[in-house]
């Protein structure tokens, strides 16, 4: 059995390989396809997927793959998994603007989600977390230990708003739970950096389903820094199981404020469903 350090090093190497593939094609020519669900995928996503699968088969054939672009989307108990998002923020990549990253995580049968990683090719920054051991930032070969941010009082928390969401849903939700417009921060796949830099404390994903490759890497990192990453009702996310029935969404926030914020958001959600 490979050690956790070996697995972490593998994920870092593959993240840099993914970043190199992105940078080779960024703002250049590549193919864009539309998937069955209407979302976009590029030949760059597929090249990263092919690269990762080849490396995984050579070095970790005993570990299963759970990725956005892989064939299988099933997770079974009793097995270890790499959870990969080849390009998080594909729409930003297609438009040739910053806001995309590579996200990865490792799930094992003993520690469950034990490693999380997000790599930002344009700035050559890699953030990773190891369950129970902390979170780290690697830039140009240098690694620093990240300290938990100093969280402001509840009335000064800053709330994320997805930059590309054009509707009013998040605006109304944040207004209804008392967030001032000056406390709203627009977010992309760079959201992880905003959290670790102390620029953002709360992010709400108001949809019933978010694929594990969209949250697994972030979850490990942010929980090592004092955040809670859970369903809006406070229940724990579980890679092996689908979301709770009638799931109203997901909440990232300082763990010390999780119960208060969850209650406030759920009360607002229930009032909205009654109208």
Describe the 3D structure.
The chain has 275 residues and is an alpha+beta fold. It has two domains: 4-146, Fructose-1,6-Bisphosphatase, Chain A, domain 1 (2-Layer Sandwich); 154-273, D-Maltodextrin-Binding Protein, domain 2. Helix content is 32%, strand content 27%. The protein contains seven helices and 14 strands. The protein has helices at 4-25, 43-59, 90-95, 169-176, 191-196, 212-223, 258-273; strands spanning 32-34, 40-42, 64-67, 81-88, 101-108, 112-120, 125-130, 134-139, 142-146, 159-162, 184-187, 203-205, 227-231, 250-254. The strands form four sheets. Strands 3-4-5-6-7-8-9 form a seven-stranded mixed β-sheet, with helices on both faces. It has a three-stranded antiparallel β-sheet with strand order 12-14-13. It has a two-stranded antiparallel ribbon with strand order 1-2. A hairpin with a 3-residue loop joins β5 and β6 (112-120). The longest helix has 22 residues, at 4-25. It is globular, with a radius of gyration of 18 Å.
Q: Could you give a quick summary of the protein structure above?
A:
The chain is of the alpha+beta class and 275 residues long. The chain has seven helices and 14 strands. The protein has two domains: 143 residues, Fructose-1,6-Bisphosphatase, Chain A, domain 1; 120 residues, D-Maltodextrin-Binding Protein, domain 2, CATH 3.40.190.
- What is the class of the largest domain in the CATH system? Alpha Beta
Spell out the CATH superfamily of the largest domain.
Answer: Fructose-1,6-Bisphosphatase, subunit A, domain 1
Helix content: 25-40%
Mean pLDDT: 93
The amount of beta strand, in percent, is 25-35%
Can you count the helices?
7
CATH architecture of the largest domain: 2-Layer Sandwich
């Amino acid at each position: 059995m490979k050690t956790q350090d070996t697995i972490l090093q593998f994920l870092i190497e593959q993240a840099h390989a993914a970043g190199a593939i992105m940078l080779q094609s960024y703002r250049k020519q590549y193919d864009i396809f539309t998937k069955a669900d209407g979302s976009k995928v590029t030949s760059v996503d597929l090249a990263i997927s092919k690269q990762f699968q080849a490396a995984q088969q050579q070095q970790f054939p005993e570990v299963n793959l759970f990725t956005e672009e892989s064939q299988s989307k099933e997770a079974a108990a009793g097995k270890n998994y790499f959870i990969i998002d080849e390009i998080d923020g594909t729409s930003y990549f297609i438009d040739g603007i910053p806001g995309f990253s590579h996200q990865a995580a490792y799930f094992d049968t003993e520690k469950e989600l034990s490693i999380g990683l997000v790599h930002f090719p344009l700035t050559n920054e890699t953030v990773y977390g190891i369950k129970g051991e902390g979170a780290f930032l690697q830039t140009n070969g240098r690694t620093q230990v990240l300290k938990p941010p100093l969280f402001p009082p509840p009335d000064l928390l800053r709330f994320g708003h997805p930059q590309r969401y054009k509707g009013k849903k998040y605006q109304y939700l944040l207004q209804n739970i008392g967030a001032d417009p000056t406390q709203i921060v627009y977010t992309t796949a760079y959201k992880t950096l905003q959290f670790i830099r102390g620029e953002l404390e709360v992010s709400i994903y108001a949809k019933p389903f978010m694929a594990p490759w969209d949250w697994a890497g972030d979850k490990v990192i942010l929980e090592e820094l004092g955040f809670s990453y859970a369903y809006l009702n406070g229940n724990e996310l579980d890679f092996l199981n689908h979301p709770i029935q009638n799931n109203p969404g997901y909440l990232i926030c300082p763990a010390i404020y999780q119960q208060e914020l969850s209650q406030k958001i759920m009360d607002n959600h229930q009032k909205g469903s009654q109208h």
